[in-house]
Each structure stands twice: as C-alpha cells, then as structure tokens.
Amino acid sequence: MAKNVLDLYQQHFVEKGDERLELFVLLADHFALRSALYPGSFTHLTPSFVFPIACFVDTDRRAARFFQDPSVLSFVKQRRLYDEEPMVRFHHSDYSQNLDEDD
Q1: What per-residue confidence (pLDDT) applies to 46?
Q2: How far apart are CA 78 and CA 100, in angstroms?
Q3: What is the phi-psi region of residue 91: left when phi exceeds 0, alpha when psi lies from -120 to 50, beta otherwise?
Q4: Alpha carbon distance 33, 88 (integer Å)
Q5: Could you tell me the pTM of the whole model?
Q6: Which DSSP string do the residues of 34-65 spell out, in sequence order?
C-alpha cells in the first residue's frame, strides 16, 4: 500500500520509466495545445506538468483518492513547465460517458 498518494505516481510511472514527459511536451509544442483530456489516466499526472488545464478521467477508486489529495496539486505546481496556475480536474467516471466539461 502506498504511504502517501504520490507514491502511486512514483510506483506506476516514475519507477517504470513511463512518465513520458517528452511526449507531452512534443504534443503541446507541435499542436500549440494548452489543455488536455486524459481518459483512463489512473494516476498518470505528467500531462499536468505540460498543460495548464488537464482533465483526467478514470473509474479506479485509487485514482479518485489520488486526485482529491491537496498534495497532488502542490506537486504539479513544483513540476509545471508553464507560468500560470495549473487547473487539474478529475472525473471518477467511465470515460465513454458524457463528462461535465467544455468541448
């Protein structure tokens, strides 16, 4: 069991070499993106380091607890690659269903 919520990110993405930060930077630069929607994200927080507006969607209860914890937003603020305040949203939902998000 994770000692704190950020351990989930560390165990599932950092330790496995699967953060993919360079991929998200490439996408943001190539397509001039400022926001991202990540269906089936689990706790893969990396897009929020690149995109000021990041919306994550997953049905996993651990992901729901992860994104509710204030330390997650603090971590994003430390790692972000942009100047504005991050906007991180999470939907504990099936991503094939309608979400309360702007198109």
Answers
A1: 97
A2: 28
A3: beta
A4: 15
A5: 0.90
A6: -EEEEET-TT--THHHH-SEEEEEE--HHHHH
